[in-house]
Amino acid sequence: MGRLLFWIVLIAVAVWLWRHFKRPTPPRADTEAGTTPMVRCAQCGVHVPQNRALQHESRWYCSQAHLTQGSSSGDR
Ligand SMILES: [Zn+2]
Predict the structure, then answer these.
(1) Domain that holds residue 52
(2) Distance from residue 7's CA to the centre of ligand 1 (Å)
């Protein structure tokens, strides 16, 4: 009978481990990216998430370099 108890414990542990690792963990990065609006870079036209974009005078830029280029070319 001890052998039967050993298998019951083994299966119980296996089920516990399976449920522990199968537990779904929703990726927060995807949900944040889904709610973040996309903006268009005024310099190169690429679409970037608004929280990663740089704003200058109601225009959006994908990087600091394009912000500098876009703002300098707009003044001239
Ligand atoms: Zn750009």
Answers:
(1) 35-76
(2) 62
